[in-house]
Amino acid sequence: MSREREEAWLQEQTRVDEVIGLIGQSIAGLEQEVGKVRGEVVSIRKHFWDDVSINLSNSSDLIETYSSMKQQAEVLLEREFRHRHSSVMLSRLTRLIRSPYFGRIDFKEDGARGAEEPERIYLGIASYLHEESGLYLVYDWRAPISSLYYDYSPGTAAYTTPEGKISGVMELKRQFAIQDGSIRLMFDTNLMIGDELLQQVLSRTSDAQMKSIVATIQKEQNRIIRNDDKRMLIVQGAAGSGKTSAALQRVAYLLYKHRKTLRADQLVLFSPNPMFNSYVSTVLPELGEENMQQTTLQEYLEHRLSSQFAVEDPFTQIEYVHGEVHAPGYAARINGIAFKSSLEFLNMIMAYRSLLEREQMRFHSVCFEERVLVSAEQIKEKFYAYDPSIRLVNRMQLLREWLVASLKSFAETAWKEAWVEDEIELLDSDDYQRAFKQLKVKNKKKRETFKDFDKEKELLSKMVIKQRLRPLLDDIQSLNFIDIVSLYKQLFADESLLMQVAGDADALKALPEDYQTICQMTVHRLESSELAYEDATPFLYLQELMQGFQVNTSIRHVIVDEAQDYSPFQLHYLKQLFPRCRMTALGDLNQAIYAHASILSSFDPIVELYGAEETEIIRLQQSYRSTREIVEFTRGMVAGGEAIEPFNRSGSKPQVTIADNESELQKRIIDNIRMLQLEGYASIALICKTAQESRDVHQALKDMLPVHLIASPSQNFVKGIVIIPAYLAKGVEFDAVMIYNGSKQQYSHERERKLFYTACTRAMHHLHIFTLGEPSPFITLQGEETYLLS
Ligand SMILES: Nc1ncnc2c1ncn2[C@@H]1O[C@H](COP(=O)(O)OP(=O)(O)OP(=O)(O)O)[C@@H](O)[C@H]1O
Fold first, then answer.
1. Is the CB of 587 under 6 A from ligand 1?
2. Where is the UvrD-like helicase ATP-binding domain (predicted)?
């Protein structure tokens, strides 16, 4: 180390010591404060009534009592607020003291006098204000001035504040890695930030949890994080380019920037599967923020539809797409999936709604026990008797009122029926008591005598009727008299209707050639009370059009990760569901592994969602996850892959091993896993094509190695050796990846290309593909120099 550098290091360590000392003092003060205020809160709560003087004798005493209570309540509120505030500060400083900052910039604003020293800005995961001097000893990485660190190398630089742009010269940019109070690494950078520190960070072994990237955010990623102008932000980025990482940092940024108006529960992340939720769940707490809500589209669909159907999940659909290629009707199902996820089909459903306003509506009869109170036919007649200019949803409200009235008039006579008397016999004593109480109140009001047997019986009978009609009334209130299942089924059962609707929606050309088979298959499944994944969103959309949209207005920001997995139809639906939200959609078209059209296959429909004016598209080409060798091998597998830039981190070339039979294949895999373990890799994945294959391989290997099977999306992500189907490994990463059988037989069809690419790009340091017989063309078409064959 040069002398100059040694001195700088020493100076910085001295400052680190000072800052840690000061933070320590603040922590001690806060601990005292928290303890004291907690004691006060407990004591006020305990003695609340002792200190309130209660006197209700006359109005002035009443006012005095009220104001004394109010005063006590205000004191309690103020103490509770102080307690919360100090506790938050305390936990922030406790996090900061371990590693107070990771960067420094020296910045001289334009207009500062020549002799003036540049301002030194130290950046950390939270700010630290030294109260006595009034100086910020650490700036929050999200503060406006901190963007200089991410956006510039030394030289002229500028940042934006709410008051405008501030320009100047950055004279120094320094990066640190501080652990337990000691500077472990220190770099001054002239290039763009991160290269050396990033090298170190990316060379580490992976973890079962994603990590924050706050110290090494790259310029392009910073654009994603701080982009706050447009309603829609689309990020199309290569595998491993940091889309998910940037999205989580973005959430932390938004929570900081809008801290007065935005709460964590007003943001929702749509993840590819529940396992992914646990994988990313520690990033925000690590940054000192509460987690946002996390869900999956499937979870939402289940929540809305599972009472009516067995709803197929997307993973069962993928298993079918990749595992049942020879099943009868396979091609029709695939075409059906693509068709039903298109915007053309959405337009057809809209056209269908218009048609239903005039004809073909379907209702359930309103029945009590076996008796039809209002027949489906009568409801339909009534519906079409309303003024056609009234909107469909409003006509449904009118129908509802009419049916509630019909039910009431039925109740008015039904209580006299003989069966009601039998039911009274079955009432328990609580019911009797309740009836008597009511009767007493009524009699008091009407000044009648109580000993009235008939009145008592009438009251009990009416009570019985009311109880028995309650579920029916609830059903009517929820508009369940509209027969949505028949409406959806009718669209496929009556081909002429489908043609008419397609014609009205200008979607005739989009109808697949084999639509008749698709129709039959759809009807067949609905008749078994099953809803295929591709039907779930259209069905729900139709239901909302009939019953009125159930929207969520409290959500202000929706983040859709792995956005390529969503169809245009599904994204449109999400937009309707969250009418007040801004949206961030992050994805990689090359990882689109579903059979439906991806929203990213053309940007047009997704841009149309909020309009070009309100949409920003950012592309990320640099891949950080994998070594240069792995990126150079995998990028050739996908269209446009040549644009993907590897980060300059070297490792061994991907290996391809051919085995003649399955037992040899497995033996080689076992040997390889043992070797990888000796080399110190902590997370190793054996990636299979389907869950079925994963289960079989697990069965074969489990007695020889400690392997975990992850075959269901609801499992948690675990460290160690995992056997996992490719579609569940989406979004996550491993130190070493082995592909179970990358043979020509397994991966050669176009639809398998992206699945294979997704599997290979999960590797950070080591990729090894084992094949049973001839390797897949996705391997052999790569340059021979990009991999090693054995
Ligand atoms: N600026 C950065 N600094 C440090 N690490 C980074 C940075 N950007 C990305 N990484 C790392 O690169 C890896 C890939 O990031 P991430 O999973 O966010 O990428 P992705 O684009 O969502 O990937 P995929 O689409 O393949 O799922 C992670 O280990 C992440 O920590």
1. no
2. 216-627
